[in-house]
Amino acid sequence: MNSLTLPVIHPAFQNLKRNGRWLHLIAGLLIVIHAFSHYRQPNPSPIYLFCLLLIALDIFILVFAVRNLLTDLPRVNLFFRIVEGLFFLTISSEMFLHDQWLIGATHLTLFLACSYLFYCEKKLTKEEYVGIFHTGINIPSLPESKFLLWSQINSIEATYDTIIIHTSNHGSFEFQLLQNLQFEELDNIQEFRSHYLGLRP
User: How far apart are CA 61 and CA 29, in angstroms?
Assistant: First the structure.
């Protein structure tokens, strides 16, 4: 029995890819709102205001003009997520220095949210796969992949285009395969079933 690495389509990963554009849009709108708030202050800084509007404009161009760029070039997506996170962290620090605790805490929360999104979206740059090993099965998940020992697995159902893993305490996981299983791979999975779970086809 050889270990198997099967590329799959993970629903949570796909949802994050689809919703990434809207999350960028929300960040851009928040930056515009902050720019408007800064403009209404007694002595607004023209340079700071210009930078805010430039960042917001870049994000809007990214969202509307090049829609597929975020999924086709995930590193561009990560770069803009870093820019958004640094913006919210800077505003949070400035608000705390001026004793505006509520606004500062709000922007700090947004920074933490951007950091979490960056961490999750960074995983999207790697291929999603189910790994079947002699020690157990690795399953893609957010924010961390899960590694299940054979003692935690009740059964495995594999067809040529899907794989379903039933566990004793995590429920069931169903994945669509990016490529249909070859006969040898399907036979290899059946050997794992028989050896570690005592299950026959």
Answer: 13
